[in-house]
Each structure stands twice: as structure tokens, then as C-alpha cells.
Amino acid sequence: MLYDCAKLEERDRGVTAAVEAVQRGDLVVLPTDTVFGIGGDAFKAWAVTALQNAKGRDRSMPVSVLVGSRNTLDGLVYGLSATARDLVEAFWPGPLTIIIEHATSLQWDLGETDGKVAVRMPLHPLALEVLRETGPMAVSSANKGENPPAKTAADARDQFGYAVSVYLEAAVSSDPMASTIVDLSGSRPVLIRAGAISHEQLIEVAPDLEHRDQ
């Protein structure tokens, strides 16, 4: 089902349908502040496997996680560094993905993660509404194989069809930029990918930020 969330009545039904689908272990497509994402419950192994299969990926490319609250991080790790908390406070919700060591007690399988997870809190009201009901979701850009990321939920439906239970249509940026990725799993923060948040913005918060190639 595709729901046009620009219409209030459809939005409410769509959010409910998406939350119920994720709770069943099905896949959904939803907008974020960067691109449309395809995702499922991060704690249901079969949902993550279905996501990887739909994308045409294997376990060597682990799936990122979206959360609906900064506080959710405390349940995913044993402890966050001061730098990590400062970056999250400054740039979440928004286009900053952080790589952190996750708690070994977590019952999830996101692929070959080496004990780490890439986490983001998106700045999109519809995504946040869903995430606050579902909890952490394993999410990847809504495209199959080498296709470009879908610009609408309808585009995503053309690619994924019945592999996805619910599609939420809503406006996203007409010129989206990928999220900036910072690895916080080591002793110092490392900029892995430049994106919507600039290096200059990052070093105002994390002066000891390093580049991956340094």
C-alpha cells in the first residue's frame, strides 16, 4: 500500500500501517531528510535479511540504524564519549551518521559489523513519528542494486514492488545530500564521509577530528 502523507487522513493511516508492518517484521519505505529509505525492525533478523535481499546486498555491507530520539543511543551502547554526546547534541536530528561500538548484549544481526553500528536520527517529521513508535530501524537508501536512490515513494515501489508492505509518500529535499559520517568507535573522532554537515561545522564541536586518510 502507498499512502500520500500530504493528506492528513492518509498520513495517519499510513503511519499506523507502517508501524504495524515494522512490528510484524515487514519492510516499509519512508522519507528521511536525505533520501527515501527502505527499512525494517533492527531487532528482527529476518527483516534485516529481507532488506539486504531486496537491495541485492550481502552481509559484507551492514545496514545502518535510524532512531527517533537521542536517548535511544543510551540503550544501544555501554557508554558514549563526551565528543559523541557533543556531536549528537549539535547535529541531531539531522544528516550526521555516527559509527559507535554497540553493546554486545544487543540481540540483532545487521551484517558483518565488527561490533560497530552506524546510527542516525533523521530530521523529518514523518520518519520520526514512525521511529518513535517502532524503536530502532535498520534502514538503507531506497534503491535496488546500482539504481539511483528513489526520489519518491512511487519510484521506490517501481523498484521493490511487493517486497515492501507499506510506502509512505511525502516531500523530501529536491537536492538531497548524503549524511556526513563520523567514526566515534576509536580514541579520536574520524571523518569517514563528508556530506551535508561540513568539516568546518564538525571541528567547531570536535576540534580533534581527523580525516580517514590522515
TrEMBL record:
GO biological process: regulation of translational fidelity; tRNA processing
Any single Gene Ontology cellular-component annotation: cytoplasm
UniProt cross-references to Pfam families, sorted A to Z: Sua5_yciO_yrdC (PF01300)
Coiled coil: none
InterPro entries: DHBP_synth_RibB-like_a/b_dom, Sua5-like_dom, TC-AMP_synthase_SUA5
Gene3D superfamilies attached to this UniProt entry: DHBP synthase
Highest taxon in the source lineage: Bacteria
Reaction(s) catalysed (UniProt annotation): L-threonine + hydrogencarbonate + ATP = L-threonylcarbamoyladenylate + diphosphate + H2O
Location(s) in or outside the cell: Cytoplasm
Enzyme Commission code(s) on record: 2.7.7.87
Sequence ranges assigned to domain YrdC-like in this UniProt record: 12-197
Keywords for this protein: ATP-binding, Cytoplasm, Nucleotide-binding, Nucleotidyltransferase, Transferase, tRNA processing
GO molecular function, a single term: tRNA binding
Family: Belongs to the SUA5 family.
PANTHER family documented for this protein: SUA5, THREONYLCARBAMOYL-AMP SYNTHASE
Protein name in the entry: L-threonylcarbamoyladenylate synthase
Gene source species: Virgisporangium ochraceum
